[in-house]
């Protein structure tokens, strides 16, 4: 009997979840639910699309509902709401608001006897797991997180909001020298500017003052002013040809010491090189949807994060087989 | 109230656990127990050493007993025996015999109401965890494990058993070209010889036929015959000066694809660079000793592996704080 999944929303991330479910033979995508007009959406896998109000009829037909919405406005209300009726998984990624989100989801999930796993993906998600485990193993040390090379959607959107900009793609790139200093165990103090550079590809409307736009990007507070930023103006054709993917990735490093005199250095590094950020994130979500289903079957309820889920719950392989083949 | 730890044995690994406990302020090393004469052992941290028969008097004074013995002869009997009286952690690393060891420990642990966490360290251990999680996230792909550069104690011992050899140190070295092919997502088929080379540093007795020894090493079945092996003859002084450490490390990579047409590649890489193999292994064991203690407090019993332990149990930091600072 397969695990029945529903997805709320049908953006990039939801399609990533959809394609991930096709790779997991113990799962089945039942339907996609949308706040838009269902008749305008055709899913890649051919599963039906329903309006969100239909969800109430699926309480007994879906084991886990994946919430594909955004962290700014969708998930803060959706996750606590839908965990009243379904086991849910979300990818809430506003790090500063995770404690509040956790409390809201936990309260609703406990009351309903459901499981809600929040902040699933790679950061938060896999990167968090690695930071946490490495810190537990090497209590004396420093953590470093580098992102990229990859497309930052938030930064791309920020550029698109500038008057005269038709399209934009922003790549976050880790500074290799900084990464290598960490890898060597130098434990450097690194400023924001030391760790990443930002490279922007921008299509502007004809007749626009490019140098004014370049200056507006480079000096944009929060997004760019703390970084070394380069701006390239390109044509719409070049944008379509060279920048259609959503690659991403990054590194989590822990540099620690052990020994009676702290004489031995250790470097733990976890890195991701992802051709498709939403598809990898969707793949992580699919594995945690399996965990949500199993935890719920065992009578567990409440809000969980990647820290709370024993890794074996992620795998379709039996415990015996895991020990025999992967330990 | 700190977690009270005992250690059985006082070899390299046990000293690694001892130094790790000093870095974990929520833990306290109560005593070391030995099958040798306790009066001949002085611990680095000054904790007392008792003969192993004293252990029965420590049933209520130790929360977790770490078993520092070897996988060949010690642990197969020690872990099922001592889990009758203590929560235990071992580093059993004979991969092929893990299922049998698990069953033995599980039966004894369930009967006694204790927790036994087996095969803790980095391989098995952290590497297993990464293989398993990455495989769950990317079901379609290949796993690669490379070891080194590092000292293989088993291979060093094998050389030392050759007549005329006074001392030896064997380094396992991953073939960089092979690692890079995997990193590029080529998914190569790699033979044993393709993945690692073996470099040996050997001190021989005066008047020994070096070329005969070199040939005996290079052609030794199981240990060397399937590898490209180089042998360097060095003096005792060089051995003491250049090869006294026990560094190790390696890489676990998963190369997978996602997408409706499997068009997107993803590379997940976990790497360790360890100045001291036993101290890092001891540090992993200390974190899992914390988990054993907590699981036991919650009423859990039986045999566990790294797959079965939710990561939060490894950390001394509260769940709230973990979510706030590391998620």
TrEMBL record, chains A, B:
One of its GO terms (biological process) is diaminopimelate biosynthetic process. This is Meso-diaminopimelate D-dehydrogenase. Residues 121-276 form the Meso-diaminopimelate D-dehydrogenase C-terminal domain. Its EC number is 1.4.1.16. Pathway: Amino-acid biosynthesis; L-lysine biosynthesis via DAP pathway; DL-2,6-diaminopimelate from (S)-tetrahydrodipicolinate: step 1/1. InterPro entries: Diaminopimelate_DH_Ddh, Meso-DAP_DH_C, NAD(P)-bd_dom_sf. Keywords: Amino-acid biosynthesis, Diaminopimelate biosynthesis, Lysine biosynthesis, NADP, Nucleotide-binding, Oxidoreductase. Belongs to the diaminopimelate dehydrogenase family. It catalyses: meso-2,6-diaminopimelate + NADP(+) + H2O = (S)-2-amino-6-oxoheptanedioate + NH4(+) + NADPH + H(+). NCBIfam families: DAP-DH. It comes from the Bacteria. The keyword Oxidoreductase applies. NADP(+) binds at residues 10-13, 34-36, 91-93, 120-124. Homodimer. One of its GO terms (molecular function) is diaminopimelate dehydrogenase activity. Substrate binds at residues 147, 172, 198, 248, 277.
């Amino acid at each position: 009997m397969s695990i029945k999944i529903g997805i709320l929303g049908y953006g990039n991330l939801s399609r990533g979840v959809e394609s991930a479910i096709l790779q997991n033979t113990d799962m089945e995508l039942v339907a996609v639910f949308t706040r838009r007009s269902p008749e305008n959406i055709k899913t890649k896998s051919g599963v039906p699309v329903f309006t969100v109000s239909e969800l109430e009829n699926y309480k007994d037909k879906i084991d886990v509902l994946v919430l594909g919405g955004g962290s700014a406005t969708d998930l803060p209300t959706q996750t606590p709401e839908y965990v009243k009726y379904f086991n849910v998984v979300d990818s809430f990624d506003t790090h500063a608001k995770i404690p509040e989100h956790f409390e809201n989801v936990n309260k609703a999930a406990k009351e309903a006897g459901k499981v809600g796993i929040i902040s699933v993906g790679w950061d938060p998600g896999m990167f968090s797991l690695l930071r946490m485990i490495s810190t537990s193993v090497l209590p004396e040390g420093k953590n470093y997180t580098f992102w990229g090379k990859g497309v930052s959607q938030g930064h791309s959107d920020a550029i698109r909001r500038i008057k005269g900009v038709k399209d934009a793609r922003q790549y976050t790139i880790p500074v290799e020298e900084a990464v290598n200093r960490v890898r060597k165990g130098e434990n450097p103090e690194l400023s924001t500017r030391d760790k990443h550079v930002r490279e922007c590809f921008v299509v502007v409307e004809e007749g626009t003052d490019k140098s004014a736009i370049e200056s507006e990007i480079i000096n944009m507070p929060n997004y760019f002013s703390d970084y070394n930023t380069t701006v390239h103006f390109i044509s719409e054709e070049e944008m379509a040809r060279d920048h259609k993917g959503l690659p991403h990735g990054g590194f989590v490093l822990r540099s620690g010491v052990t020994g009676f005199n702290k004489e031995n250095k250790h470097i733990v590094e976890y890195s991701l090189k992802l051709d498709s950020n939403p598809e990898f994130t969707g793949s992580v979500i699919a594995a945690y949807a399996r965990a949500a289903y199993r935890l719920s079957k065992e009578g567990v309820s409440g809000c969980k994060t990647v820290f709370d889920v024993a890794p074996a719950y992620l795998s379709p392989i039996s415990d015996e087989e895991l020990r025999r083949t992967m330990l």
